[in-house]
Write a structure and sequence with these properties.
586 residues; alpha+beta; 3 domains; five-stranded mixed β-sheet; 16 helices
Length: 586
């Protein structure tokens, strides 16, 4: 006869289930409360970070220091709230686990950056008067670089590690609002790592490059984006500067007319010859066809040395669009018959000058006057903070490339975006699009491009797709309304008003093209290997208003990677770059 009590086994099972449910409820409540606190802290970090960027831009270091302490406090709090064993355990729960892991990773990264990068750099910045860099009169005081190099080195190491960890977070595995926040954080950390890495490189390199250990000579190559080349544009003007003990002086200016074509081409890589024949080795104007500035820089130095005999320590290539950023710092400048400001300088140098001054020799003189005026203004009285901001913006847009003849300096430069080397697929996968004009005029002021990437699987294989739409946006009557010097007037076999462009697409390292088409049709293409990258090149002829779309799919090693970055030729108008869902073309 039963006494109404449950069997012992059932009582224990019921008790166990009750305990588990109670613990689970308590754990959920625990992580919920801590999660709310962590999210609030991270929101404070984001808000303060935005204000910090503005404060640094305004030069208000006191406010920046206060904001950095707030960021460090909230980042540390968020890290503490999301690093206890219960929170970590929830990271292993199916479906919801990646969200917990992502929040804790973001909090840890923010804490490390605030404590080990942000505060040390701002501490030394507070002790350093940027004006003491001494740009007045063309002289740079090199002593402050000794002060700022160590904290920048530590900050650069911290940010590089943070970038690697940030890019490992799988945003696609999290809920949409969190995924968007993670991607924004990844982009911010990458940008910060790039900027601080460049600043550290500058702190290390500038003293010796500016002649602290002996005089230096540098060639400045000015590229014209109205006639595109891989690294920006055709070399339109060239100059020699001298640096000694921080004093910088403009020594000599020249034009491309001073560099006739060579009978015997300079040595070139197989990839350059495959894409452009030997023209970059014979014509100064075409050296910037070369996609890798570690090859182009020495070639430019060789041409100057062959022509003038001056030993060259390095080459700095800049493009015409950089002048807009420079005039942000200097203000309006007069040269020749013109006065320019940041709003009209690009249109004048890349378009209007050809109608106002039809003679190419006179144009060269004006370009030289413009370069001299900007160089002089930058080194004599421009606010150093504004100048640094202008140079940083230009570098971020890949409008500055530097090569050094000194091996130790070149090794450091080649590892940064300033070095202009082909990218390496380490933490990110890179694809690229290069544009090279063969019209022979200055029609690329009217060029437009859109670039889309898609990653996924096609026919069971990981696939990266790159789609490029190239457009001739010149007016319909360009043949008659634009000067013959701009259209080339058919001199090189291209009808006036039309454009002919070599469009080169390269894929991830190790991947090979599995599908290539132009406007949906197979066409003959040139191919080359750029290091470990497969490149395909189309020749595109467009009348005014016409567009053409090139699609290349890559499969194999490196293809299908979620973190795919697009590199491209710097243009007058930045291409519209987007990521789309993969629709297999093959």
């Amino acid at each position: 006869m039963s006494d109404g009590r449950l069997p012992v086994r059932r009582r224990w099972l019921r008790w166990t289930i009750g305990v588990i449910v109670t613990l689970l409820v308590l754990a959920i409540g625990w992580v919920t409360i801590r999660g709310i606190g962590a999210v609030n802290d991270l929101q404070q970090v984001a808000t303060s970070s935005s204000k910090l960027k503005a404060a640094i831009g305004d030069g208000d270091l006191d406010k920046a220091a206060s904001l950095s302490k707030s960021i460090a406090h909230h980042a540390g709090s968020a890290h503490d709230l999301t690093s206890d064993p219960i929170w970590v355990a929830f990271g292993y729960v199916p479906w919801i686990g990646p969200n917990f892991t992502a929040v804790s990773d973001v909090a840890e990264i923010a804490d490390d950056i605030a404590a080990d990068a942000l505060i040390p750099v701002l501490d030394v910045a507070g002790e350093l008067d940027l004006a003491s860099l001494g740009l007045s009169g063309g002289v740079v005081d090199l002593a402050p670089f000794t002060l700022i190099e160590p904290p920048l080195a530590e900050a650069s190491t911290t940010l590089s590690s943070a970038e690697d960890r940030a890019l490992e977070i799988d945003a696609d595995a999290t809920l949409p609002p969190l995924a968007e926040a993670v991607r924004e954080m990844q982009a911010t950390v990458t940008q910060a790592a790039t900027v601080v890495g460049s600043l550290h490189g500058a702190a290390v390199l500038l003293p010796t490059m500016l002649g602290a250990e002996g005089p230096r000579n540098y060639v400045i190559a000015m590229q014209n984006n109205a006639e595109l080349r891989s690294s920006g544009g055709i070399i339109g003007a060239i100059a020699l500067i001298h640096a000694e003990n921080g004093r910088i002086s403009l020594v000599q200016q020249a034009s491309t007319l001073d560099f006739p074509a060579l009978d015997t081409a300079l040595p070139l890589s197989e990839s350059t010859i495959a894409l452009f024949e030997d023209r970059p080795g014979r014509y100064l104007q075409n050296i910037t066809n070369i996609p890798d500035f570690t090859e182009a820089g020495p070639a430019i130095a060789s041409r100057w040395q062959l022509r003038y005999g001056t030993p060259i320590d390095g080459v700095i290539a800049v493009d015409a669009v950089m002048t807009k950023h420079l005039l942000d710092a200097t203000g309006p400048l007069p040269f020749g018959p013109f006065t320019v400001d940041k709003n009209n300088v690009v249109s004048l140098l890349l378009s209007e000058i050809y109608a106002a001054v039809p003679d190419p020799a006179a144009q060269d003189q004006i370009f030289a006057q413009a370069a001299g005026a900007m160089f002089g203004a930058a080194l004599s009285g421009t606010d150093p903070q504004d100048l640094v901001a202008a140079l940083a913006t230009s570098a971020d847009e890949d409008r500055i490339r530097i090569w050094s003849a000194h091996e130790d300096e070149q090794r450091m430069l080649a590892s940064t975006s300033l070095g202009g080397a082909l990218p390496s697929d380490d933490t990110e996968t890179h694809v690229g699009v290069l544009f090279n004009d063969t019209t022979g005029g200055k029609m690329d002021y009217y060029a437009g491009a859109t670039i889309t990437t898609s990653v996924g699987t096609c026919e069971g294989e990981p696939t990266t797709q790159v789609r490029v739409t190239w457009t001739n946006d010149a007016p319909a009557d360009a043949a008659t309304s634009l000067p013959p010097y701009v259209t080339a007037d058919g001199l090189y076999g291209v009808p006036a008003g039309s454009t002919r462009t070599l469009v080169t697409v390269y894929g991830p390292e190790g991947a090979t093209p599995s599908h290539i088409d132009r406007d949906g049709e197979d066409q003959t293409v040139q191919t080359a290997l750029l290091g470990a990258r497969s490149a395909v090149q189309h020749e595109v002829l467009l009348a005014p208003g016409e567009s053409s779309t090139i699609t290349v799919e890559y499969q194999g090693t490196g293809a299908g990677e979620r973190l795919t970055v697009v590199d491209h030729t710097p243009m007058t108008s930045t291409p519209d770059i987007s990521r789309e869902q993969l629709r297999c073309a093959s």
